[in-house]
Structures are given as C-alpha cells and as structure tokens.
C-alpha cells in the first residue's frame, strides 16, 4: 500500500510539473520528450529507476528564474515571467481533485481528465488580454480536434518559439494521449520525430517559422507518416497550399490546417483535397469555443475519388493488353486482363483513366546510370499514377515504386524452336526400338538353322519332308513366317510341327504389332529429341534473349547454378520481333512468362496444324503480377481492398477468357476480307480434321525398300550372267 501511495504521489508530481512549467523556453525545449498519462503506461512509471524518479520530482518542484527570449509572435509577446500570478498559481495551488489509491485504468484516466478540467477552468478566469484570448482559443481548438479526431491516436506535438506559451500548449499536453513533444528550430529537428507507428498517429504542428517544415516536406521521403492525421497551425492559407501540394503532402490523405481569420479568437480551418481538386478548401471556422459547423475533418477521401483523372501507363502486350487500332494507327479499344482490372478499380472508386504510352522501345524500362526509363521511370518520377502490363512484383524495384496486391501469377519459361521432324522414310523402323530389332534379327537368324537341324534329326526316327532337310529352304521357310506368308509345305514329325506352331505364334505377334504401330508412325511425323530442361539449355550454350534486363537479374539471383550461368549468354532487347529470327534459326531461346509465350506460339507461329515454336517443359521463378504505383501512393490501400474482392469473385479468370473471345471475334472480322489462298488453307485444315489420306510422303519408306530390292535383284542377275558363271 505504501509503495502504491509513492507511485501515485509521483504521478501527481508529474502532472503538477507539466501544469506549472511557466517558462516554456526552459522546460519544453527537450528534443524528444515522451510523456504519457494513460493507464497503459503506468507500469513504465513503476519501472523507472530511482535516479529518473528523483529527476522528475526535482523538475516538478523547480522554480524558473530566467525570462523567455523575445519573439515576433503575439502569442510569444504575451508571455509573463515564470513568477507571474497565473503560472505561480498553477504550480503552488494544486487542484482539489485528489487521486485515490484506486489505480484501475478507467478510474485513473477519468481522474486525469478531471484534473485537466480544473486547470482549464483556472485558465479561463485568467485570460483577459486579447492576445491571451487568441492563444486560449487556439488551445481550445487544438484540444477539441485531438479529443474528437485523434482520441485513440498517439499524438506528436511539434512547435517553435512562437507557440511555446503555456496558454497554447498546456491544455494539449495534459490530454491522456501518448505523445512526443519536439521543439523545431531547424529541419534536422523534424527527423527526430518517430514517424513509424503500428496504430493511429496524430501530428500537431504549431509553427510560425515554416522554413524547416517547407524544406522537410520535399526531402527525406521515408521520414513521414503518409497514413497519419495532420493538423498544421501556420500563418496563411498559401502556406497550407504549399504543404498540400508538396511531395509528401500530395501523398498524404489526412491534412487539416488552421490560420487566423482576423476576428478575435477565430481560426479558419482548411482540409486538403487530395484527388478531389488542387490544394486546400475551407471547411469550417473555429469561433472561440466551437466550430461554426460540424464536419468530418478526416474523411475517407479514397472511397469516392469523384471522377478524378488518374494516369496509367499501358502498351500492347498480349494477352495482358490488347489494342484494336484504326487504319491510321489510332487506338480504338484496349482490352485484356490488366485493362479489366484497372477499369474495375475505376468503376468502384469512381475515377477516370487516362492511358499514356512509355517512350518507344522502353516498355517497363531499365536502369541507366542510376535512373530508370520506361514505365518504372515514369512512376519513380511521379509522372503517372499507376503502371500495368504484366508487371512482375520484384524486390529490386520496391525502393522506387509500390506494388498493389497481386491479381495474377505466372511462371518464367523458355520458348525454343520446334525441331523439324525426322524423314518419313525412317518411319519403317520407328515401330520397334533398336534393341527390339536386334532381338528379332537374332530370332530370324536362329530359326532357320534350328528348323533344319530338327528336320534332319526327325528324319532319323521317321520320314520328314525332304525340303525341310535343306538349310537354305529352312531359312527361307522361317523368313516367310516372319513376313506372315503362308507356307504350303507342312512338317510330318510331331516335334517339327510343335516347333512350327510356336514359331508361327511368335511371328504373327511380331507382324501384327509392327503393322499396327507402323500405321501411326506413317500418319504422324516423329520429332527428334529436343531440349526440355534448364540443364540441357545450359549445356547447349545457346543465347538466352529477353525483354530488357529484368530477367538477367532474375537469373543472377536464382539458387540453381545452371540458371545463374545463363546470365553469361543473356541478351536484352527492346522489341520481341528482334528476338524471333534467332529463335527460329535455333541459335537462341526466348525467356518470358508462360502465358505470353503460349499466346505467341498459338498466334504467330502456328500453321497447318503445326507450330514452329514450343515451350520448354522446365520453367522457373513464379512471379506475382500487380499494378505499379508511385512510392507511398495513398490509393494503394483502396486498390488492395478492391483487388481482393476481384480475386474472391474470380474476375481475373473472367477477364482472361473474355479477352480471348473478343480477340478471336476481331480476328475473324479482319479475315473476312482475306484472299482465296487463306480460305483454301482453312478448307484444307477442315479436311485434315475429318480424315487424312496417305500421301507419297507418308509411304516414301516402302518405295525405298522396293527400289533397294530392284537394285539387289539387278546386281544378282548381272552376277549370274557373267562369263565366269557360264
């Protein structure tokens, strides 16, 4: 109990310390003073070391003896010495409200508010001069905004000498919000603010000299809370316009400003418009004790963008983005997966899309001397609001742009040439593998002599056909069975007959298997062994071609050593049309996402039922596809939310299928005026789908056989009629 009383006594001392700091130049000049009076931090007070506790107690009991420096602000000019009646009363006349031993969070918070009320009432009685009335009015406005709009936020207060009077700050600092207090003399002071917060954060800037702030809002882009709630008290509306249109202000959703309107105790309140319009707009007026109208000072400005025009980078890259052009090259229609996503975002969030093209040949862009070109460069320079067209989410670019939530994913694959088929005359040998042909040949060679020996042996025990007792006839007999030729001569002995029966079963199985398999090989061309794996690609030493230098970095960062080695043979291009000739010649492969390669193969290199290009079986590095946004873009939060809805509804797949159907329809309309040769080609394709008659090309192998037979017969005939034979 005694320890609890000591802690409560310490808390009361701290409250009195803050309320009694009449010389603000002496006691509010700590660079970063974090004071918290809520129950959540009571444990921190209890954990203070004795030295820190003694320092706080001495600070509460200390009396200042120095006069504050002169100031040009009328708020500073109204300051009194630290021994003025008002300040002395705050230090020595403690409020009647007492803190009991009950330290529950609710009770402690309520009692702190009661103490604040007592102090506020005393200020009301002592505010007599016009300057003090203006300062008190400002103080009440700050408290009203923080209590109503930042009640659950961690509040940071930044001020300069013009606003250091207790009449301005004490009401604000006594609120039960966790806060950081910073006195601003130069730009470096603003860097000491804790800009990172996991929850709601509020920032109150009370500045008469704006040079440090105006410099800060256009530098140090990562030192800023773009999701925080800001209240700026500055000399003029023009200063608020500058803040709202600064590099940081343009990407901050919640900015409210206050300037003196001229009347006693009256302040004009302005709000930034973000995407709604340029600069700031006056929304209400503070008149001493209340606002002239009740408005939401920090509304959701992204739920409805009110038709704002957002620029989007796009270029034709099928099947992500299709272009339908007029004869003069004008784009009549854009469609595709990415276009469908962006148009849905525009419909839900109510904004208008203005499509822009990257410079010729730059597409996504690449890095040159530390700066980026193309789409990425336009986003990094804040020239456009978003970029699309199959944009991969890559950690390499996260320092210069933000990504929306992914709405698709693709594998990185290689497009290679389809090797020409093997000659059809070799089809006669295709039905069996080499080892099978060797076994059949051995069986043929053995069958004749075995039949001859069996027939000669059977003749000892009885009579056997004389013809079978001839080695040449037995070999010819076995060859006829292998060729499925019926033999007139039948063996007499049972042993020979059994051998012939099993030889017939063996040969008939082989001939049926060969003939049925041969039909398939005659109808379909056989392709040679092709390169299908990354290891085989590495061994081939072929050039790897891609768009720009993105894939070179992807290969270099891969864990597979075979992929890493491909960086040595990688060649970046600005146009894929420059890549295709090398791939067709078999000198290179094209590295790109699978969907694009499949589309190119099906539309550019498919003819008469065959394609001259193919996709290698082994792919790597699945990449998420998202929209590119400006760094710290405020619309990212809403974009992510709507994209999540689209994914849950399956709209991405719907956009893909709809785009393909529309592409086919447009292609059919274009081909209605094609020449007769194209129509004849289509007719030929239809006939081949119904049935394919065997051509001379299909049967060229058997003609080679008959020609070889003719040549062999001729040579034997010439040998028989030679003079030496006669």
> Largest sheet, order of strands side by side?
1-3-2-4-5-6-7-8
Mean pLDDT: 76
Helix content: 40-55%
Q: Structural class, from secondary structure content?
A: alpha/beta
Radius of gyration, Cα only, in angstroms? 44 Å
Number of helical runs?
A: 26
Would you identify the regions where 5 or more consecutive residues have pLDDT less than 50? 17-106, 675-691
Distance between the termini: 140 Å
Regarding quaternary structure, how should these chains be classified? single chain
Biggest beta sheet attributes: 8 strands, mixed
The fraction of residues assigned to DSSP E strands is 15-25%
Shape: rod-shaped
Write the layout of secondary structure elements.
Layout: H1 2-19, H2 24-27, E1 33-35, H3 42-46, H4 50-61, H5 74-77, H6 85-92, H7 105-126, H8 130-149, E2 154-159, H9 166-173, E3 179-183, H10 187-190, E4 201-206, H11 211-216, E5 229-233, H12 237-244, E6 254-260, E7 266-272, E8 280-287, E9 308-313, E10 322-325, E11 331-335, H13 337-349, E12 351-356, E13 367-368, E14 371-372, H14 374-380, E15 386-387, E16 402-403, E17 408-417, H15 434-461, H16 471-482, H17 494-523, H18 534-540, E18 543-547, H19 550-556, H20 561-565, E19 570-573, H21 580-584, E20 588-593, H22 594-604, E21 606-607, E22 610-611, E23 613-615, E24 620-625, E25 628-629, H23 636-649, H24 651-671, H25 676-690, H26 700-720
Parallel strand pairs: 2-3, 2-4, 4-5, 5-6, 9-12, 9-15, 18-19, 18-20
Antiparallel strand pairs: 1-3, 6-7, 7-8, 10-11, 13-14, 15-25, 16-25, 17-20, 17-23, 17-24, 21-22
């Amino acid at each position: 109990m005694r320890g609890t009383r000591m802690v409560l006594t310490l808390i009361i001392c701290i409250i009195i310390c803050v309320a009694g700091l009449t010389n603000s130049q002496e006691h509010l000049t700590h660079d970063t003073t974090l004071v918290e009076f809520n129950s959540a931090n009571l444990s921190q007070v209890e954990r203070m070391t004795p030295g820190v506790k003694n320092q706080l107690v001495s600070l509460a009991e200390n009396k200042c003896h120095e006069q504050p420096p002169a100031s040009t602000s009328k708020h500073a000019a109204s300051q009194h010495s630290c021994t003025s009646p008002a300040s002395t009363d705050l230090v020595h006349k403690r409020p009647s409200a007492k803190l009991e031993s009950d330290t529950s969070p609710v009770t402690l918070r309520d009692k702190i508010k009661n103490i604040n009320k007592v102090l506020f009432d005393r200020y009301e009685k002592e505010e007599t001069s016009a300057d003090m009335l203006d300062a008190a009015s400002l103080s009440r406005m700050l408290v009203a905004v923080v209590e109503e709009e930042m009640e659950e936020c961690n509040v940071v207060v930044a001020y300069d000498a013009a606003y250091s009077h207790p009449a301005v700050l004490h009401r604000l600092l006594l609120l039960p919000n966790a806060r950081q207090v910073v006195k601003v003399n130069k730009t470096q002071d603003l860097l000491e603010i804790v800009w990172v917060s996991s929850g709601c954060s509020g920032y109150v800037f009370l500045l008469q000299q704006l040079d440090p702030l105006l410099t800060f809002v256009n530098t140090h882009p990562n030192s800023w809370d773009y999701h925080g709630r800001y209240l700026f008290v500055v000399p003029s509306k023009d200063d608020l316009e500058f803040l709202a249109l600064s590099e940081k202000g343009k990407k901050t959703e919640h900015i409210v400003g206050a300037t003196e309107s001229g009347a006693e105790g009256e302040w004009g309140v302005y709000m930034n418009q973000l995407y709604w319009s340029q600069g700031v707009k006056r929304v209400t007026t503070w008149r001493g004790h209340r606002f002239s109208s009740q408005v939401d000072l920090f509304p959701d400005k992204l739920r409805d963008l009110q038709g704002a025009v957002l620029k989007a980078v796009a270029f034709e890259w099928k099947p992500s983005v299709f272009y339908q052009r007029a004869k003069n090259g004008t784009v009549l229609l854009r469609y595709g997966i990415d276009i469908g996503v962006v148009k849905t975002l525009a419909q839900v969030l109510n904004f208008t899309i203005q499509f822009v093209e990257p410079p010729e040949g730059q597409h996504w862009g690449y890095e040159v001397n530390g700066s980026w070109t193309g789409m990425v460069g336009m986003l990094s320079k804040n020239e456009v609001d978003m970029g699309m067209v199959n944009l991969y989410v890559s950690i390499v670019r996260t320092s210069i742009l933000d990504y929306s939530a992914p709405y698709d994913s693709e594998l990185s694959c290689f497009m290679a040439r389809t090797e020409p088929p093997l000659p059809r005359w070799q089809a006669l040998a295709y039905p069996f593998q080499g080892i099978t042909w060797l076994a059949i040949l051995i069986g043929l060679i053995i069958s004749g002599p075995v039949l001859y020996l069996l027939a000669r042996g059977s003749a000892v025990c009885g009579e056997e056909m004389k013809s079978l007792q001839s080695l040449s006839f037995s070999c010819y007999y076995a060859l006829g069975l292998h060729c499925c030729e019926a033999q007139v001569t039948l063996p007499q002995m049972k042993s020979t007959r059994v051998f012939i029966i099993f030889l017939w079963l063996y040969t008939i199985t082989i001939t049926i298997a060969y003939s049925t398999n041969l039909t398939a090989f005659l109808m379909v061309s056989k392709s040679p062994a092709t390169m299908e794996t990354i290891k085989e690609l590495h061994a081939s030493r072929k050039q790897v071609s891609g768009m720009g230098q993105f894939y070179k970095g992807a290969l270099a960062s891969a864990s597979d050593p075979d992929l890493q080695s491909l960086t040595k043979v990688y060649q970046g291009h600005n146009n894929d049309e420059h890549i295709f000739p090398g791939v067709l010649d078999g000198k290179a492969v094209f590295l790109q996402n699978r969907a694009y390669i499949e589309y190119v193969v099906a539309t550019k290199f498919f003819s008469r039922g065959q394609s001259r290009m193919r996709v290698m079986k082994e792919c790597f590095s699945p990449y998420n596809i998202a929209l590119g946004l400006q760094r710290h873009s405020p619309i990212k939060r809403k974009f992510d939310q709507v994209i999540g809805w689209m994914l849950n509804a399956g709209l991405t797949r719907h956009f893909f299928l709809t785009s393909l159907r529309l592409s086919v329809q447009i292609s059919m309309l274009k081909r209605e005026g094609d020449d007769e040769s194209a129509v004849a080609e289509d007719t030929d394709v239809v006939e081949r789908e119904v049935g394919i008659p065997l051509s001379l090309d299909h049967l060229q192998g058997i003609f080679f056989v008959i020609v070889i037979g003719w040549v062999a017969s001729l040579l034997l005939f010439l040998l028989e009629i030679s003079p030496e034979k006669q």
